[in-house]
Amino acid sequence: MDDREILAALDRHWAASDASDFEAEHQIYREDAVLDYPQSGERIRGRRNIQSSRAAQPNRKRFTVRRIIGAGDLWVTEYVLAYDGRPSYTVSIMEFLDGKVARETQYFGEPFEPGLSRAQWAERIP
Fold first, then answer.
1. pLDDT digits over 38-90, tens only?
2. Given the DSSP bridges, would you call strands 86-97 and 42-45 parallel, antiparallel or unpaired?
3. What does each C-alpha distance from 59 to 5, 18, 55, 66, 101 come to in angstroms?
4. C-alpha to C-alpha distance for 71 and 1, rounded to whole angstroms
5. Which residue spans within 3-123 are E strands per DSSP?
């Protein structure tokens, strides 16, 4: 796959994620894909296990992609994942092999109040 095809596959993946279309969402993964959540110390092996773990998540999820960057076999998506309306700022790092995701690592950041020490230099992000 060339970069345009991978970017199109990622666009389909995140749109399906936002629509809770679990079957379409997971077409991007290899059968032996590995998903890591470093902050919780979890690893999920296999496309079906990844799909099942996400389908079992009880919260209503919405995905807003901020940007996708990458080339070749390494792609990064920055997005806001809202669980029941509460935002989590998320980065997904996907490693492709033969046109499918072989490994994904996701990092989550909770929102926090702006620091007073930098108030004179900072502006609010819309």
1. 999 999 999 999 999 999 988 889 999 999 999 999 999 999 999 898 999 99
2. unpaired
3. 31, 13, 10, 21, 25
4. 11
5. 29-37, 42-45, 61-71, 74-83, 86-97, 100-109
